[in-house]
Predict the structure of Sushi domain-containing protein.
Amino acid sequence: MRQHGYKEKVKYSCNEHYTLEGEAEIQCQNTGNWSSKPVCRASSTVGIKRGRIFYNARKIWIETCSQTE
């Protein structure tokens, strides 16, 4: 992998069926770190009608879970 210099930018994208969370384009900072770290997330579609999950340190019914939580 090649090294990147100060103010250089890279663009991220995700494989099919994954969603990019964060900025698609990031920039190398003067600290040597990147401006942000995007991640690719898998779809959270669950094919069951009733069930409970452990989410944010609590048990909830799947039908009460939304993408805005």
Notes: The chain has no helices and six strands. The domain at 9-64 is CATH 2.10.70 (Complement Module; domain 1).
